[in-house]
Amino acid sequence: MFHLNDEPARLAALRRYEVLDTKPEVEFAEIVTLVKSIFKTKYAAINLIDVDRQWMKAAAGLEVFECAREDAFCAHTIRATRPLAVEDATVDHRFMNNPFVTGDASIRSYLGAPLTSPDGYNIGAICVFDTEPRQYSVADEAVLASFAKVVMSQLELRLIARQDSLTGSLTRRAFVDRMDRLLEKQQTATLLLIDLDRFKSVNDTFGHPIGDLVLKSLAATVQASLRRTDAFGRLGGEEFAVLLPTTDEQGALAFADRLRAEVAARALPEIAGGSITLSIGIAGHREGESRDGWMARADDALYAAKKNGRNRCVVAA
């Protein structure tokens, strides 16, 4: 079932894949290179449609770039359930005044197939385009639609590899990747390291299956409190991390303490109505600081929280 008129849900589907602003990946580069060769066009690309921009994950025949959503051919493609073919953009009222048609790019023909998530949201498109007018057949559309499915399969595999199977949070590697991308942008951000206090006793008393339910419950609580720009990952065992972009230490402390209090006050039927508590270490990123140095300061703060009685939040020195 397709969902073409729910933009917030479409954007949420796009963000689930954690692919915007990521580095080039050979799997996607090989797809567009093959598509360009099959269709014998000058260009091919995999484009993702964000709030107000089109971002290229991979391209053949040109450098990867992003552009305004209002200028993107693929922004039209995601509005339908089938491929979009444009024979000559100079006589198509939708595109005749497009800067990629009237400007130096001189785009004339285009064929794009929507990238549809399993739950029916078009997150972008795979496309071929050229500087010469061209007719595309129904068979051409079917071939490109098949490649769109290949792209989505790769995105699904990528998602599985980056997602913790128990809690749905990012894996350690995926979380660290998110930190690195944020550091490249030199944004203000604060890191939280979260540890479940005395979690070993939960496993010892109630068993590991119950312990897993407790971890899932905590993860759901954290995820419900996050903004779409935040990141949440499981670093291992009962240790989690939250990355809060554009948030200073005081704002992060307020967030962490609300989370800590909410978790401590909740009775968990999984452990006979008992509750769990959290120790949280907080560290804002300092200019010029490495990722490892940043994590080490947050870890020191977490250690201080546990040493000083647990069930508390500590900001790094």
UniProtKB/TrEMBL annotation:
<dbReference type="InterPro" id="IPR050469">
    <property type="entry name" value="Diguanylate_Cyclase"/>
</dbReference>
<keyword id="KW-0614">Plasmid</keyword>
<feature type="domain" description="GGDEF">
    <location>
        <begin position="187"/>
        <end position="317"/>
    </location>
</feature>
<dbReference type="Pfam" id="PF01590">
    <property type="entry name" value="GAF"/>
</dbReference>
<dbReference type="GO" id="GO:0052621">
    <property type="term" value="F:diguanylate cyclase activity"/>
</dbReference>
<dbReference type="InterPro" id="IPR029016">
    <property type="entry name" value="GAF-like_dom_sf"/>
</dbReference>
<protein>
    <recommendedName>
        <fullName>diguanylate cyclase</fullName>
        <ecNumber>2.7.7.65</ecNumber>
    </recommendedName>
</protein>
<dbReference type="InterPro" id="IPR000160">
    <property type="entry name" value="GGDEF_dom"/>
</dbReference>
<dbReference type="InterPro" id="IPR029787">
    <property type="entry name" value="Nucleotide_cyclase"/>
</dbReference>
<dbReference type="Pfam" id="PF00990">
    <property type="entry name" value="GGDEF"/>
</dbReference>
<dbReference type="InterPro" id="IPR043128">
    <property type="entry name" value="Rev_trsase/Diguanyl_cyclase"/>
</dbReference>
<dbReference type="InterPro" id="IPR003018">
    <property type="entry name" value="GAF"/>
</dbReference>
